[in-house]
Each structure stands twice: as structure tokens, then as C-alpha cells.
Design goal:
The chain has 327 residues and is α+β, with helices and mostly antiparallel strands. 41% of the residues lie in helices and 23% in strands.
């Protein structure tokens, strides 16, 4: 491909990104003068690409609205970015497409990669690994995902069919606030208007979704991601734990993140950096993992409840003392 032809294609990519581009901007990006930019635009129009000339102070060139471009063209870096996104989505479970669609899309891109880039990609994939191994999770239906996204955007109630963790199936109404990807799964969070409480639901357990008439106001308070994390931290579990820890928010959160524990809110600006006593609340199914976590904080703490946690911490302290004495 000659250099002028390559610049014409680059011009098309710049216009494809949207908006109006000035002649000076295009000339700078292409490394040519304004007269050459106009010649390249003429070549595009000769190819039936509808490039519009915009007059005025902020004028320049743009593609006609609604124009469907010919087959997608990706540079080497762009193709690599798309392929890595497909691989990462499949490996971590964060893909809305069925496994076959994911693999066929990857194969189509790989077929048109230059040989040297395909070889480098294979080398990268051999070296790549993921700490999050969710297994063979069910992926959400793309139609359901788009219906929920539309309901979130327009603040419309939505009716969904849902199977809970005990296998019970039912239909419920949701005022969906947002869709969140977390730890290899997709969730929708919103208010159940029947009970006036927030709900966090797994999307792979939703079998149908349809918009309902009406609307609801935008929710106040934290965003969807924070609501999901708070929902995990306050879910019903076997043990309710309350601990007071003397430390900064950052230090405590390093061991007890928002998805695990609820931390009392800072009192004033800059309080995150202050060392003070903070109440931490958790709901957990097991207590045995907590003593090592509290010890790793290396900060003073007081266990308010339950008594069983005090016993476990004392037992850990005795073991550590015994190891230190070599007995």
C-alpha cells in the first residue's frame, strides 16, 4: 500500500470516529498540508464515501449522519486489543455472548491478522494467565441484558422471571438502577417496589425480562457498583460480626474490602487518612478466616461480637506464641 493510499484510509478512520474535524487538525494528524487533505477528501467522495464539508468558524469535514461504513478495518494494535478483550471476557466469565459466538468472532479476526502479529499473539496467550477462574458459568442472555439496560436508561419498571439460589422460580418487578460486573458474574441491582428494598440479582438466573409502563425517579445515594458491594456485605449469613479497629480507612479496606465489610462513614473531609477507632460490621458464614485477617492488620482491635470470634483469636495467639518459642 502506497503512503498516499494509507493516509486516505487513515483520514477515513479519523472521520469514522465521529464529529467534525477541522482541516488544520486533519493535516496535523496526517502530516500533510491543507491542500493535500482536500485532495484526500475528494478521493473518498470518488469512492462514494459521503464526506460533508461544514462551513463556519468551527467547520471542517465529517461523515454524513447514518452512513454505514464498508467492512470494519482495524490496525494491528486495535485488532490485538479486541482479541485480548474477547479472551479476557471468556476466561473470566464476563462475556454476554455464548461461547460459540465468542470463539467465532475471535477466529474471524485472527484470520485477517498479519502472520507476524498472529505469532506474537499466540506467544502472548501462552504466557497469559488469570487469577480469577470462575469455571463454566452461565452467561446472561444478550436480549435480556439489552432490555435491562434500556430500562435502566429510561427509568422504566421491568418485569423479570428469576430463579433464586434455592431453585424457586417466580416473577418480580424491579426498578433497575444499573448492571454491574463483579468477580466473574453479571448482576442487576435495583429496588423491589413491592417491599421497598434494594435487590441484587444474578443475570444468569434471569430467564425473561420485559419493560412495563410508567417510570420511576433516579435513585439517591451510592451508584450501582457500590450498591452491589454493600448488598454482598450485608447479606444474611450465619454469623454477625462487629469489630472496632484503630486505623485508617485505607489500611482497613486493604484487608476488609467493601464487598465483605461495612465500615462506618468518615465524619469529615480528610477523615480517610486519620487514625481513629472505626466500627466494622460483617456477616459471614464461617469465622475461622477472620483471626488471621485481623492479625495481618497489625492494628489494635476490640471484638464486640460474637464471643466465638474472641475464642478463635485467642487460640491463634496461643499458637503463634508457641511457634515463636519453638515448642
Amino acid at each position: 500500500m502506497s503512503r498516499p493510499t494509507g493516509r486516505v484510509l487513515t483520514l477515513l478512520e479519523l472521520l469514522q470516529s465521529g464529529g467534525t474535524r477541522t482541516v488544520a487538525e486533519l493535516a496535523d494528524r496526517l502530516g500533510v498540508d491543507g491542500r493535500t487533505v482536500r485532495r484526500y477528501v475528494s478521493q473518498l467522495t470518488d469512492l462514494d464515501v459521503p464526506v460533508e464539508s461544514v462551513r463556519g468558524r468551527h467547520g471542517g469535514y465529517r461523515l454524513a449522519p447514518g452512513y454505514r461504513l464498508p467492512p470494519l478495518m482495524l490496525g494491528d494494535d486495535e485488532a490485538l486489543a479486541v482479541l485480548l478483550g474477547l479472551v479476557a471476557g471468556r476466561r473470566t466469565g464476563l462475556t454476554t455472548a455464548q461461547r460459540t459466538a465468542n470463539e467465532t468472532a475471535s477466529a474471524k479476526i485472527r484470520r485477517v491478522l498479519p502472520r507476524h502479529l498472529a505469532h506474537r499473539l499466540d506467544t502472548l496467550l501462552e504466557a497469559l494467565d488469570f487469577t480469577d477462574r470462575p469455571g463454566e458459568f452461565d452467561t446472561p442472555d444478550a436480549g435480556i441484558l439489552l432490555t435491562l439496560a434500556d430500562a435502566v436508561h429510561h427509568r422504566r419498571p421491568v418485569s423479570i422471571r428469576y430463579t433464586d439460589r434455592d431453585g424457586r422460580r417466580g416473577e418480580r418487578t424491579l426498578h433497575a438502577y444499573g448492571i454491574v460486573a463483579h468477580a466473574g458474574r453479571w448482576y442487576v441491582t435495583g429496588e423491589d417496589p413491592g417491599v421497598g428494598e434494594d435487590r441484587t440479582l444474578r443475570l444468569d438466573r434471569v430467564t425473561d425480562a420485559r419493560a412495563l409502563p410508567g417510570s420511576f425517579p433516579a435513585p439517591a445515594g451510592p451508584g450501582p457498583a457500590q450498591r452491589v458491594l454493600s448488598g454482598f456485605a450485608t447479606a444474611a449469613y450465619r454469623h454477625e460480626v462487629t469489630v472496632r479497629i484503630h486505623g485508617t480507612v485505607e489500611r482497613i479496606r486493604a484487608r476488609l474490602p467493601a464487598s465483605v465489610a461495612v465500615l462506618d462513614e468518615p465524619e469529615a473531609e480528610g477523615d480517610h487518612e486519620a487514625e481513629r477507632w472505626r466500627r466494622v460490621e460483617l456477616r459471614v458464614e464461617r469465622l475461622d478466616w477472620l483471626p488471621p485477617v485481623l492479625a495481618s492488620l497489625d492494628r489494635p482491635f476490640v471484638i464486640e461480637r460474637p464471643d466465638a470470634l474472641r475464642d478463635l483469636v485467642a487460640a491463634l495467639a496461643d499458637r503463634l506464641a508457641s511457634y515463636a518459642r519453638g515448642s
